[in-house]
Amino acid sequence: MRAQPAFGSYDFQPADANSVDAQQEFWTGNPVPDELDFHLDDLEPADAASERAEQGLWLGDLTVLAQHHTTPNGSHTFVLAHDRSITWGVPGEPQVAAIVVARDLSLNTFTFESSHHATVAFAQNWLVERGCPPERITQLGEDFMKPADDLTVRTEQQIRESGTQYEALDSHTSDFDPCETWTLTRDSSTDQAPIRVFLEEGDADAHTYTMREGAFPDEAAARNWLENRSGPLPQPPQYRDEAAARRAGVALTRSAGAAAIPKAGLDTHHTPPTGTAQQPGPRRPM
Description:
The chain is of the alpha+beta class. Helices cover 24% and strands 26% of the residues.
């Protein structure tokens, strides 16, 4: 059995109906159309771009990861989904779909916008930037892989809340060995190693995944690392700064604790008290 990526299915083309069934059994989210209805039957697209975007998605290929509908009247719908149709296309293409539908009931029109991403965190970022409350699309249910550690949780939150900080330059999704996705970005908030690689690796046996951030001086260096994997993923400068700050804090704490302990000076003389000297009493039993 091939390893399962953190977000979904495979990028191979099934040879027959049995292969299709075998592929889909790994993805146990809520299939549509039963679980997803944009309620557009009585509405018209507000513009040509919305019409193209709606027609470009086949609902039967979507597996919903999370969705949020606003009130009143459900004017907006935000959807996070795995797009199984991508597995029939060019290998490596991003498989996570983010969809926003806005309805104008006074005009009986709607706008429709969608975007594909390699990882859930970047798709969530796209939805948050368009008005979706983050807490509504971060719970993916018990059927999906879980973050393996706290660093993964923090890195995904960093991406989700980054706004337009990261410009996506490229991405790749691998459903084979290694089971991973990566997103190549440019960090607009820094001039120090501004090219960032976000690498997600899945562990099918543990049903978990990790997300790590790497930093590079330029795009060529990042692509060279992705191609050759000649060493560990280079840590961002802020990771090293945080580690140094923690070490300094520990050292200061230890130093302060040591300074608080009184020490007898070498020249200190102890003068015995005046008066009748007392004989030592018997020892107490241990």
